[in-house]
Predict the 3D structure of the following.
Amino acid sequence: MFLIGSALFIVTELLLLQVSVIQCLSLCQEEGWSCEVEGKSVNLLYRCNEDIGWNAVFEESVLTVPDGTHSITIMDCYDVMIPLSFSFHSDLNQRLPKLSINNVASLLLTAAPDTLSIPQNIILNNIHWLDCIKRNTFSGDWQSIAFSNVTIDRIDMYAFAELNVAVHIEWDNVNVNLLDTNAIANVFIEEGSFKIKNSVIETMEIMSFGIKASKIPSRRITFRNVE
């Protein structure tokens, strides 16, 4: 009985993995997408090119991804619009471990309607223009938020609010035209740090920062207009 039970368990595991792979391959048949399967994990990549066009616009309020998806990378696009909300085909309680957006001319992030479906980690790298980070875009529980070489026109009131971060928030070479009142409010990084360096904030309004962290290392930051 033990051997039969073990065999059934192994077969069940293999069937679940096959279903995940099939779901992954069906997504990869869509233009722009490619998938890399490593064991039970799936890494998704969307790369713009001349054949599919230079825009990646995902108008859904929630993006559904294959079970076992470990990361989504979007890169080399002109316009990108993406929600910070993801669901899995069968595991409704699973969260996307990593979202990475690289080498984009114009980016628009849509706040997640359900804080349970936000990614655990996000990396924005080489974003020429992020028009606005709107209210409640970053809230709930995250592991890390990292911006590198990003220009942001405006960070709205409560864009980062009621936010618990386990590891860190990092800004490196981030330029912000307007940091609104209470733009970063009630942010807790109890065990980690808020790191900011090589950055410029053109206008910082009253009470723009409200952060509690064990460390806030900073260097080479310019504030041009502090209200």
Summary: Residues 24 and 66 are 6 Å apart (CA to CA). Confidence is low (pLDDT under 50) at residues 1-25. The two ends are 74 Å apart (CA to CA).
